[in-house]
Amino acid sequence: MTGEDAHPHHHTVEVHEHGDGCGHEAVVHGDHLDYIHDSHRHAVHDGHYDEH
After folding, report:
1. Where is this region: Disordered (predicted)?
2. How is residue 14 annotated by DSSP?
3. Which residues lie below 8 Å from residue 8, measured CB to CB, with a gap of 6+?
4. How far apart are CA 31 and CA 39, in angstroms?
5. Are strands 48-51 and 40-45 parallel, antiparallel or unpaired?
6. Of 52, 39, 49, nearest to 17 (Cα)?
């Protein structure tokens, strides 16, 4: 995969911002947090959430 396909994303930060009190479980993934959302993980990246 290259370009945009290398980072599939679900929605933008403007739609829902993960963080303290957002209602989604946070898990450590390397040097950042992923948030469990609809049975998959999101990680913030350039204004959107990558699927992890």
Report:
1. 1-26
2. T
3. 50, 51
4. 21
5. antiparallel
6. 49
Distance of CA 18 to CAs 1, 2, 3, 48, Å? Answer: 26, 26, 24, 11
Are 52 and 11 spatial neighbours (Cβ–Cβ below 8 Å)?
A: no
Amino acid at 52: H
The overall pTM is greater than 0.70: no
Provide the 8-state DSSP code for 44.
E
Are 25 and 12 spatial neighbours (Cβ–Cβ below 8 Å)? no
Question: Could you list the pLDDT tens digit for every one of the 52 residues in the chain?
Answer: 444 444 555 566 766 778 888 888 999 999 989 999 878 888 888 878 888 7
